[in-house]
Amino acid sequence: MQREIRAHLAANFYWDVDFVNCQPSLMVQVLQHHEIPCPLLERYTENRDDCLQEVMDSCCVSRDAAKNLFIRLLYYGRVNTWVAEVQSQQSSLSSTDSQHVTVTVPAWVKSFQDELMEAGARLADMDDLADVREHCKRHKSSNFIGSVVALYLQTQERRCLEALVEAVQRDGRSIGALIHDGLHVLKESDADVIEPATLKKWSRAVFKKTQYMLDIAVKPFECNPAYLAGDDVHGQHDEDSQSLKETMTYDEMKACWENRVCKIIYPGGTYLRMHKDQVQVYSKQALLSAFEHVHYSSYSPRKNDKDGTLVSKRHAFLKTWLRDATIRTYDTMNVYPPPLTAPADEFNLWTRFDVERYHVTHLPVDTQSPGVQAIIEHLHILLGRTSAHTNYVLDWSAQLFQEPSKKTGIALLFKGEEGSGKNIWTNIFKLMMGSDKFLETSKPSTVLYGQFTSARRNKVLICINEANGKENHANNDVLKDMITSETFVCEAKGENATMLRCYDRFIFTTNNDNPVALSPDSRRFVVFDVSSELKGNTEYFKRLVRMTEDAHVRYEFYKYLMERDISRVDWYNDRPRTDGMARMIFSNAPLEFRYIHDLMLAQAQDADLTIPLDELFQGFLEWLARNRMDRYETNGVKFGLRMSKLIQSPRNTTGICGVSKDKIRGTMVYRFEPGVVLQELQARGWVE
């Protein structure tokens, strides 16, 4: 959130409590601990206001711009680059020719840069930074030493901030937000103040826990009404931001760019970009099309200019970067949810669930809150208030978040009327997971079953709405493989195909009677009949949707699922045996088997029965006509093949007791034990 917006929202309700000069102060103490000399850095931390004022006066810049110079130098930045950016910025505001704008920093600042370069190199080589070095190596940062120092200092800053949070909360204060190196403390009343003694107490608490001595201050919120009014101040802000980007040198832009972008060697021509904690995949052409506007600048002294004025020249960044032999690359990419870790040469496509990014404020987290109870009760009503069904679905849902790297191999199917509330349940997971983890489609033949399958990449839950038999029956083998397989061939239009790990689970919603092909030995589905109790209850749905749209309620439900004990669940053997499942198995029973059932009923008094295959087939045709199913496509060969499925054998899982076949004087005959056959057909669910 922009500083001006945050100030207008929070100034009347919160104190802005910050560490003073946090990262430079941390750097001094870290270097002193490792006996690395840093006299100029010590001077800066002890006399920061004077140092900043000297740069402000010498370069005609704001205090923020002067602070930016020293923070940049802390992370292996360059004085010349900062100077070039300031010159360019001031030129754009000047009515004179830009070539005459000159910025000169105090001489000691360049010595300050040299000191930090040497100190940073020595610090980055210390044994206690080994883990940080390995992390930066894996991410192949082009500014390696700067990245090591930055990550280490940011980690120490986080430790200090966590210690400050504990100290503030011990005093009974509520915290509204964490902001960089500080936090917002809720005002207890209009007359509330935070005394200097309290700030010193908090500082001592931080030192006790981290061994870092940092001053803490209450800073005024910086409110600029013109910013929110959308006038020239805001416009200039955007323009300056763009100007600063274009004035970067290639090395600086490359370092910034490669924090988010890398190249994947296989499949060839693939580029990945991190954006808002999600991975975007680009072909080379798509990358050029999207970012051809990005430029960097090179700088050289103007000829015959004794003042050393720098002249800049713009260059297309990607034209240079794509040909750079040292860009950030990985051999391949794949998905490694926790607790799995990716090999160093593979880019891990996994990112956090959206709900995990939620920042808990002063609100309490209650896993039994009214919002959580409303979500659970909604599921309970949907499942006909059957506790065994509700518990299985809650366990299955908890496993999504607790064990994202393990597939259960079980898909859920919710069958019920439109408007019963099925999709409210699935939408909760859409909001909790985020668009990169959740896929919703009513056209699986296009999105999932076809050649282009990239929609499955990095998904944890796929919801197939309005599931119908036409699509799913025709792709039954593909569907079964999707539910259990942990790899798939990922291909997008214009991209090379590659084999990826997959951890997607499936939920089907439907009001169709036979949306998937189920048999008595189907192991991959649990079918639930959805109650119509809530249909038409508009006010109920409005209240529930408002609750699920509350990020705090979703976080509480997430914590409820994470705390749910699923250690003893056997996903296959604990599946509820539902009436809905039995009906779908019956709907998928071959008509030939139903015919045999009716035939056995008519001959139930016989101990055994022998019928020639031709006579059986003729009887089947007559049975179809009597039951108005004469459009069923069949012939003698198809009928014989289907009948052979009733014969038990090691390779035939549909075979039943009480049926055998034989050949008598060249004629194929079937032998039946009617009583046994009836029991077997009923046990398999092929007859009602």
UniProtKB/TrEMBL annotation:
Q: Where is the NrS-1 polymerase-like helicase domain?
A: 414-524
Pfam (any one): DUF5906
| InterPro entries registered for this protein in UniProt | NrS-1_pol-like_helicase (IPR045455), P-loop_NTPase (IPR027417)
Q: What is this protein called?
A: NrS-1 polymerase-like helicase domain-containing protein
State the taxonomy lineage.
Eukaryota, Viridiplantae, Chlorophyta, core chlorophytes, Chlorophyceae
